[in-house]
Write a structure and sequence with these properties.
It contains eleven helices and 15 strands. The chain has about 260 residues and is α/β, with parallel strands linked by helices. The chain has two domains: about 60 residues, Orthogonal Bundle (Arc Repressor Mutant, subunit A), CATH 1.10.10; about 190 residues, Rossmann fold (3-Layer(aba) Sandwich). The strands form four sheets. It has a seven-stranded parallel beta sheet with strand order 6-5-4-9-12-14-15, sandwiched between helices. This is DeoR/GlpR family DNA-binding transcription regulator.
Length: about 260
């Protein structure tokens, strides 16, 4: 296993367990104790973890996300959606990822794809995002180029919003964009709790050749405060919790529905 893969694997162990011991790395990654310690020191130098006696723990800056990221009742559904979304992304593509728990799951799925970890003279993927947690998650993948929009951070969601965000997005062209929402209705379309985040999501959608709304089935039928102005909603990735009637209503409105895991 190459160093980049080892570092990614150690971060995944930390994300799952909160802490890791040198002996865990030795047994799970089949490396020597000296290699395990050097890898932990390298990640500590990047401030991606905090070294402890015999191992490491999560770094608070890198991993202390809002509670909605840490405790998610729809986590299994979002993982299925993330895998379906990742399968749509070809190597070398330029994609947009707005913030939110489902988009974060997509970032994780992309970061674990072996074809995107292969050594290359060019980026295997370019990700444009307004979510600083997604940027931090992907920046440790050296073959993935990450572009972060400017803007003001919304502390509730870790998303950048405002005119600086708009300025950057207006200068990029995306192959694909994945947009998370708080509510989804076949008549009203996708809606967001925060009007500033809705404006960013709409602009990112318009900058992409193809945009997919990603929403677990608990969001269907719900309506939030702000619509995505100027966005033609035509693709949805959801989970198997969507009913036949709901799927038919979206398709009748002209939306292609991809049911993850079906």
């Amino acid at each position: 296993m190459e160093k980049t893969e080892r570092l990614n694997a150690i971060l995944d162990l930390l994300a799952a367990q909160g802490q890791v011991l040198v002996e865990d790395i030795v047994s799970q990654l089949e490396v020597s104790p000296a290699t395990a310690r050097r890898d932990l020191d390298a990640l500590a130098a990047q401030r991606l973890l905090t070294r402890t006696r015999g191992g490491a723990r999560m770094d608070a800056v890198a991993y202390d996300l809002p509670s909605r990221y840490a405790r998610d009742d729809q986590a299994a559904q979002k993982q299925a959606i993330a895998q379906a979304a990742s399968a749509l992304v070809p190597k070398g593509a330029v994609i947009g990822l707005c913030g939110g728990t489902t988009s974060t799951a997509i970032a994780h799925a992309l970061g674990m794809r072996r074809d995107l970890m292969e050594t290359s003279s060019k980026p295997t993927l370019t990700v444009v995002t307004n979510a600083i947690n997604i940027a931090a998650q992907l920046v440790v993948r050296p073959n993935i180029r990450v572009m972060v929009t400017g803007g003001v951070v919304n502390p509730r969601s870790y998303e950048l919003v405002g005119p600086y965000t708009d300025t950057i997005l207006q200068r990029v062209a995306l192959d694909l964009a994945f947009v998370g929402v708080n509510g989804l209705d076949p008549e009203v379309g996708p809606t967001i709790n925060d009007e500033a985040e809705a404006a960013v999501n709409a602009l990112m959608s318009r900058r992409a050749s193809q945009t997919y709304v990603v929403a677990d089935s608990s969001k269907i039928g719900a309506r939030s405060f702000a619509t995505l102005s100027g966005f033609n909603f035509s693709n949805l990735i959801t989970d198997s919790g969507i009913t036949a009637e709901e799927k038919a209503a979206f398709e009748a409105a002209g939306t292609k529905v991809i049911v993850a895991g079906a």
